[in-house]
Amino acid sequence: MSDTAAGVQFSVLGPTDRVDDGRLSDFYAYPDGLQHCWVRANMIASVDGGATADGKAGGMAEAGDRAVFRLMRYAADVIVVGAATVRVENYSGVQVPVAHRSARQRRGQAEVPPIAVVTQSGSLDLDARFFTHTEVPPLILTCADTFEDTRGRLGGVAEVVNASGPQPDRVDGATLLDVLAERGLYRVLTEGGPQVLGMFIEHDQLDELCLTVAPLLLGGLAPRIASGPGEVHTRMRPAHLLCDDDGYLYTRYVRAD
């Protein structure tokens, strides 16, 4: 055996099994019996690590990624996203088909999960689609310094919550999760952007990462999927790897501990 492979077991991955729609949902089921928040991130990146194409993550998506994106939303209690991502991607409320509403009811979930927007400033437009095109009011998770002003402007169309911790000018990840847990929103899905994902990673609050690898080379100055000042080394293990006919890879990594 070559010295370079000594002690390492390699496996060849290939198309060994087809996954139908019903079984696909099983790949993205949350753990049973949750009594605290389980934080899942869903992101997309190019082969060379770019997180956006033409300024949008959605610019890289094809049919398979959009299908997985929807399935993860249907499984979640709440979708946490940064205000910048809401603006850039033109978010609306979650749309849930009848069949998935029934499945959610059987799991004890509300029929439609709310969007929870993380914003330090509270600067959100009242005519934004996640206010005007939604069945359930969003949560606005802001900080102490801007809470009263934000509640005064947006309290009629959203539930505005002070999610600060020790720093009154910042949203705190632990406080944010406490806010969601108090409402029984344990199945947390974050769709970024990079600063929100970086916050969860930096403070060791991310339980799993679902990363779609798009078969694209972007080059240029495209950002990473996570950003922030803190560097960590959290060990993850692969839970599954799927692929589709368009060459997209759908990875799911969970905590190794």
UniProtKB/TrEMBL annotation:
This protein's UniProt keywords: NADP, Oxidoreductase
UniProt superkingdom: Bacteria
UniProt keyword annotation of Flavoprotein present: no
UniProt domain Bacterial bifunctional deaminase-reductase C-terminal: residue ranges: 38-248
Pathway given in the UniProt record: Cofactor biosynthesis; riboflavin biosynthesis
GO molecular function: 5-amino-6-(5-phosphoribosylamino)uracil reductase activity
Gene Ontology process terms (BP): riboflavin biosynthetic process
UniProt xrefs under NCBIfam families: PRK14059.1-1, PRK14059.1-2, PRK14059.1-4
Record protein name field: Bacterial bifunctional deaminase-reductase C-terminal domain-containing protein
Species: Mycolicibacterium holsaticum
